Amino acid sequence: MKSTHRIGLLLALIFLLPALFFSVYEMSSLNSDEKMIQDIYQKQLDAILFSVNQYSDDVIGSWIARVEPHLDDDLPADSIPKKIYDLVGLNAALSAVFVIDTVDWSSKFRIYSTSFKASDPVWPRVQQSLRDSAAMIAQLVSYRKSGFQKIVKLELQNNPSSNHCLVFIHQRGTSDYKIAGMLIDPEQFVENVVGPRLQTVARDQFVLSVVRKQGDSIAYTTTAPDTTATTAEALTKDFWIFPEYSLGIRTSGTTLQQLVRERTQSNLFLLIGLDVILIIGVVLVFRNLKKEVDLAQNKADFVSNVSHEIRTPLALISMFAETLEMNRVPTEAKKQEYYKIISKETQRLSGIVNKILNFSQTEANKKHFHPESLHIDTEINGILSTYQFHLSNKGFEYTYSPAGDVWIYADREALIEILINLIDNAIKYSAETKRIEISTGVEGAFGYIAVRDHGVGISKKDQKHIFDKFYRVSSGNLAKSRGTGLGLSLVKQLIEAQEGKITVQSEPGKGSQFKVYFPLNKT
Ligand code: ADP
Predict the structure, then answer these.
(1) Rounded to whole angstroms, how far apart are CA atoms 6 and 49?
(2) Which of 142, 213, 241, 391 is deepest in the core (most CB within 10 A)?
(3) What sections of 68-115 are H helices per DSSP?
């Protein structure tokens, strides 16, 4: 397996696979989380309503605690003990307090009230109902004996008032028990006692309401009534002391379901977002690693290429020099030929060494450029006149179409280096059609030189890499041709250092055109 493929597989195994498993697991557990959150929320709401019920019970309990010590005060008829008066007189919800002997029904039936006279039609009904509830009263007494004060609602037949009657057992001394009770206006109780409590509990987070079961109408709500629909309550519970009423609660603004759904949705988006980031990250890491691995591979190839490049001329030089040294050359003409070969191969060697030095200097930013105003045609004519011989020697014909009077701003040495590299490549990578076309022109703020050949061409995939250092196309017969993989990389560096650019257009089998752009001279 190729090393880059192995790295890709490893990355996928280490990062992507666990992330994918985690995401699938998280997504499937989101639903159960949603249910769990809803359950917890429901319990919380339940607890709030419980606390409201508890509070109402406590209020009634505290009222009883305040009136009980004064129920037996020996006062003239129609007068009310001060403590009871304070409570009944100042509390709109508490209309009356009464007390009666459990054994002797004909004994005193004392009423402490500012609004209910003894003649009120409600009292005979209270007495009748008490008589009918003997069993219940006996049970309340037994509770009281064991130390537990229970308060019960007394049902009144044809109750003429809107007040509810609550009864409890009043203990006098150690063994004397009396029935005591209160008339409470539930609407006032809700308004004046429960209401303020609901407001404190609700704050901005909840909407709490008291609903009349009959007719499903709202008795009290912590928001403006027109915005409240009783059906929208997330949870309703019975109101303990007034069972005709119920307590309702919901989250203010959005409903509970919406809230949970929104949460689940944002979790889902977050998860998908994280996955996407992870995938992008892994792809980026993979691409970088691949680049490094490819570079290392190309470097290794470069070393073997260069060794090969150097070995051939060295072998030739050493062979011919040895022959000459041993005086084994028969004719003077042959001698001249051998000298020529030695000189040519030496040039080739120094060409290679120069290229490598040039490359390393440019890459280390140690190369100094001396840009000047250059007449493009004059420069190219100069280069072509010295290169003409080499070209025709290799069997190439060339055409040159100058654009005319174009001045560019460039370093002369670099320009020559660039052009020679491009022409050299055109020669190296041409097979049957040995024709090179050179032209110049102006495009925007640039003057360009184009070198076109009719050789092997370059595939789209390779075009992306040919400017990378050490890169050589590895397929095709001409891959075996000599080269270091540094030429185009050097050309690119040289041209970019002068704020120019290089482009390539090529089709495999049809040839290539390289275009180098230099900034036009502005003066
Ligand atoms: P080298 O020629 O030493 O291999 P270069 O950097 O000059 O290195 O070129 C890189 C690769 O680009 C070459 O290996 C070759 O495959 C391809 N190439 C460059 N110029 C041409 C061209 N004119 N025609 C076809 N292929 C080319």
Answers:
(1) 62
(2) 241
(3) 82-90
